[in-house]
Fold this sequence. Notes:
single chain, mainly alpha, 70% helix
Amino acid sequence: xxxxxxxxxxxxxxxxxxxxxxxxxxxxxxxxxxxxxxxxxxxxxxxxxxxxxxxxxxxxxxxxxxxxxxxxxxxxxxxxxxxxxxxxxxxxxxxxxxxxxxxxxxxxxxxxxxxxxxxxxxxxxxxxxxxxxxxxxxxxxxxxxxxxxxxxxxxxxxxxxxxxxxxxxxxxxxxxxxxxxxxxxxxxxxxxxxxxxxxxxxxxxxxxxxxxxxxxxxxxxxxxxxxxxxxxxxxxxxxxxxxxxxxxxxxxxxxxxxxxxxxxxxxxxxxxxxxxxxxxxxxxxxxxxxxxxxxxxxxxxxxxxxxxxxxxxxxxxxxxxxxxxxxxxxxxxxxxxxxxxxxxxxxxxxxxxxxxxxxxxxxxxxxxxxxxxxxxxxxxxxxxxxxxxxxxxxxxxxxxxxxxxxxxxxxxxxxxxxxxxxxxxxxxxxxxxxxxxxxxxxxxxxxxxxxxxxxxxxxxxxxxxxxxxxxxxxxxxxx
Length: 479
C-alpha cells in the first residue's frame, strides 16, 4: 500500500509540476519529458531570426552549419542556437534521464534482457544445487545462525542457502549473481508465507539486509575512480566497507527490534564477530600489498569467487550424479529446467520494474527532483554543513531511485571537483553503501506478487539515511 501511494505521488506530482511549468512559461516544451534521451540538449525557446540581436544573427549566418554555441564551458551547460526552416531553436542544459517512452524501451532492452540472461544461467545453477543436495547441506550448516535472525524459517529450509549465496554475491560485488539468488530466496520464502499478499517477517528482514548491501570489494567504484585518474583508486575501499557494514548492522537492529529478535544469543554474537574478524583480516592483508598488488587482488577476487561457486556446484553435482538418476533426469537437463524457471521469473517482474522506472523518469525530467535536491542542499548549507558535503548530496538522494542516475552524478562530481577531493571520494562512498531501494522493492516483491510490503519501504529508506550519515562521518575520519 505504501509503495503504491508513493508511486502515485511521484507520478501525479511530476505531471502537475510539468503542466504548471508549461503554462507559466518556465518550460517551452514537454516533449523531452516524453521522448527525450539522457544528455540530449533541452529546447528552451524558438524564435525567428530577425528577433535575435544583430550580432547573434550575423554569427549564425556566417557559421558553416548555421549553428553556434554561446558560453562554451566544460563545467556548465552550453546554450546552442540552431537555424533551420526559417526559425532559430535555442537549446540550453542537458536532459537528466531518458524520457518516458525511451525509458520503457530501454527498460526492456538494456535492463530486462540482460537480467533475463543472468536469471536463466544462475537459476539453472541453483536447480543443480537443489537436486544435488548441496543447498540442503548448506542450509543444515547455517541453520543455527539463520534461526536467530529468521526465527520463522523452518530448520534446514532451502531459502537459507539462497539467502547465503545472495549475501555472498553482494559481499563480493557480484550484482549479476546476487539478483538471481535473491529472487530465488524470495520465492522460497513465499512458499512458507501464510499470507501470500503480505510480506512475511522473514522476507522483510531479508530485503532490508540485502538493501544494506554489505560490500567487501567495491570493484565497480574502484574502476570508475581509476578511469577518472585517481591517485589511489582503491583508497575508498575501507570507508565503503565500514559504511556498508554500519548499514547492515542498522538494518539488523531496526528490523530485529520490530520482530523481537534476541540479540544476546551467543550464536548470533559469535557470527557477527566472525564476520568482523574476517573483514579486518582481509583488510590487513590488502593493506600490506603495494599499489599493483592491491589492484590485482581487488580486480580478481570477485571473479575468482564466482568461478569457484560455479565450479564447486558442477563438481558436487557430478559427484552426486546418482541423485539426478534417481529423479530420472541428468545434470544438463536439470540445468535447463532451472533456466526455464529463471526465464519465467524475469518476464514476471518486467511490469513491476517498468512501472517504477517510468515514474522515476518522469520525476527526474519534470525538474521536481532537482528543485527538491537543491532545496535540501540549501537547507544543509545554512545549518553549517560544508559545501563539500552539500555538493555530494545529489548522489545520496538519487541513489534510492536510480543506480544509473546516481552513478552519473558520481562521475560528474569526480570530474568537476577531482577524484581525490573530499567530494569526489564521498560520492563514491554514497554510491557503494546504499541500494536502489525502489527498484529492489519492485523487483523482489513483484517476483512473488506481494501487494502489502508492510514496513519494508520505511525501514529501507531509514537504513539508506543511516548509510548517508555514516558515509559523511567515515569520509571525514579518513580524508
